[in-house]
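Work Package 4 report. The design task specified in the project plan requires that, given a folded chain encoded as structure tokens, an amino acid be chosen for each position. We show below one input record used in the internal validation round.
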């Protein structure tokens, strides 16, 4: 304990990384507990179709945000000018203009989306929900500055506080409205609270509208590959909702969304850690630069992967029982969804620490190439699976796509000198045993999903 306490003190890279990791885990873990509490309460106040409808709203808003992302956050984290006032204000100006444009586009597309998904009320939900995109554009760059320096304590506390307030608002609205509008309006109010807390409580100068030509050129030059990567990233992370929304009823889409929420926790936690911790580490200690750097990354990577893989195996084994414990019988089918998605995510969790090495080194082209291939394989797996065997087929298609993505991820990792084959193959063996055990124990509910 004394060695651990000593490691957490000071301003060395290791100390900052450990403190940042601790805050990220606490923040993300706390956030997921709040989301679970919200989920459990709201599923009793609302109905499965409400969560299916909100999945469509979230998919649309996230799609707009990702289709226009030029990587302001990663640019601030990696740039040598990341602490320069003109650079930060230029980045903030781009962000505000982007948020306003996104809101306008959402207003234009609301009716066509309602027609596409044959849900007339979707237009109104999107018109109101899109206000969150406008609000998010004003978020201060001080948030990214804190991430850049791994000073994540206050950022984490602000994030958790805004989620607590959002949960209270969502429950109050659900009690009053008993409709999808409770989820839509609470999402907008949560964005407003998040902006207010970050603007009031984070240290540093307030952002002002500013255009610095050289800063704008750097942001846009770096951002063109981030833009293309996030387009592919949207298809990879939200393509399942976009496709299944056309094939499934709203209640089944809601059940899928609940299952995905539970099963994706380890993967999303790993992604949050990697985005906040690994880019600064890769920037300051490239693993390909020396054997010492590579060894340091292995010491960080192994315990992280072990924890995430074990979490996924536990979710796969106990997913059905967990859903039956937490939810009422209307949501029982989500248990088999948890099992299959947790099994599918074991491979990407093993490789989650690799792709940020490309961003840290400025290799946006390779990062985009991997993101595009991931999206293409996942969409192909989903479409083929859902056409052949409905929801069950889509889940199996996702799993096969995750396996097919592995060689491309290794290609990227080798370019940066980050690939650790002993790490990958060792955890793959553990994961395979976990998958076999989970499917054997849950064969009956999985078979029911096929029907």
């Amino acid at each position: 304990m004394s060695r651990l306490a000593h490691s957490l003190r000071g301003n060395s890279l290791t100390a900052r990384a450990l403190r940042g990791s601790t805050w990220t885990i606490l923040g993300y873990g706390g956030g997921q507990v709040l989301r679970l509490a919200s989920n459990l309460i709201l599923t009793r106040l609302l109905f499965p179709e409400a969560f299916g409808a909100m999945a469509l709203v979230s998919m649309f808003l996230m799609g707009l945000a990702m289709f226009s992302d030029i990587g302001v956050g990663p640019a601030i984290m990696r740039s040598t000018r990341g602490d320069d006032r003109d650079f930060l204000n230029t980045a903030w100006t781009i962000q505000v203009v982007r948020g306003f444009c996104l809101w306008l586009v959402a207003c234009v597309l609301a009716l066509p989306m309602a027609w596409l998904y044959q849900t007339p009320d979707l237009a109104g939900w999107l018109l109101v929900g899109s206000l969150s995109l406008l609000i998010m554009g004003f978020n201060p760059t001080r948030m990214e500055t804190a991430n850049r320096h791994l000073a994540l304590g206050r950022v984490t506390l602000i994030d958790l506080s805004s989620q607590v307030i959002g949960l209270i608002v969502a429950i109050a609205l659900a009690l009053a409205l008993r409709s999808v509008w409770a989820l839509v309006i609470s999402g907008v109010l949560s964005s407003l609270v998040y902006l207010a807390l970050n603007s009031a409580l984070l240290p540093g100068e307030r952002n002002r509208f500013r255009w610095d030509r050289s800063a704008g050129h750097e942001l846009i030059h770096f951002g063109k590959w981030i833009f293309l990567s996030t387009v592919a990233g949207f298809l990879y992370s939200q393509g399942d909702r976009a496709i299944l929304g056309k094939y499934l009823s709203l209640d089944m889409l809601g059940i899928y969304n609940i299952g995905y929420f539970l099963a994706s926790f380890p993967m999303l936690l790993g992604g949050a850690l990697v985005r906040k911790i690994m880019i600064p580490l890769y920037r300051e200690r490239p693993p390909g630069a020396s054997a010492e750097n590579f060894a340091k990354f292995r010491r960080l990577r192994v315990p992280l992967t072990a924890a995430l893989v074990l979490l996924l195996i536990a979710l796969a084994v106990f997913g059905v029982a967990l859903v039956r414990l937490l939810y009422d019988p209307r949501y029982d089918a989500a248990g088999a969804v948890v099992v299959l998605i947790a099994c599918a995510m074991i491979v990407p969790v093993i490789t989650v620490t690799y792709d940020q090495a490309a961003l840290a080194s400025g290799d946006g082209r390779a990062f985009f190439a991997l993101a595009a291939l991931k999206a293409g394989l996942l969409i192909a797996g989903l479409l083929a699976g859902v056409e052949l065997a409905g929801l069950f087929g889509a889940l199996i298609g996702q799993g096969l796509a995750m396996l097919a993505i592995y060689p491309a991820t290794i290609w990227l990792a080798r370019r940066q000198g980050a690939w650790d084959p002993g790490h990958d193959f060792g955890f793959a063996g553990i994961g395979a045993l976990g998958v076999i055990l989970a499917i054997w124990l849950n064969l009956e509910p999985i078979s029911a999903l096929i029907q």
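The chain has 20 helices and no strands. Validation will be extended to a larger panel in the next phase.
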